[in-house]
Write a structure and sequence with these properties.
The chain is an all-alpha fold. The chain has 2 helices and no strands. It starts with a helix and ends in a 9-residue tail after the last helix.
């Protein structure tokens, strides 16, 4: 049971960390999928 909780915590840390890092680097889905003809809020 303890290993499962550690795995859940690791998944949460990886998900939040990758979201922050990829957003800063410019690999977010908003940056990658938007063309020049699309208006997106900043």
């Amino acid at each position: 049971m303890k290993a499962m909780f550690i795995a859940f915590a690791a998944i949460a840390v990886i998900a939040v960390g990758s979201n922050l890092i990829l957003g800063q680097v410019g690999f977010s889905s908003q940056d990658r999928a938007a063309g020049s003809a699309v208006r997106l809020d900043d």
